[in-house]
Amino acid sequence: MRNVKITLIALALASGTTVAQGKALREGDRYMCSWGAGTAARAQELKLAGVSLYAARQKIQRYKFDKSWMRMMAMGITEQTYDSPSRLKPTAVRASFYEECVRYKLARK
């Protein structure tokens, strides 16, 4: 049953990606979605490895970010990831986050 759910999620993500690619997305938005997806995937890796939220926050604080908005965004994404009961693999979390972010950005236009 679990494999069926994962397969359905993957198919939904794949079909949604092709629809989203048909519309224009700014390079900055694409970068933000990609960066956020990577952050969510890393947070999921830490969560599945048994690292506490406190330790994950400490790792974020030690990391040097390129842009000023990234640190707080990384904190928020990490907290949301830890609050979620999801046990999906990090690659699935990355794909899901990216798809939802692109969908959100396109809906705002």
Automatic annotation (TrEMBL):
Keywords: Signal. Residues 1-20 form the signal peptide. This is Valyl-tRNA synthetase.
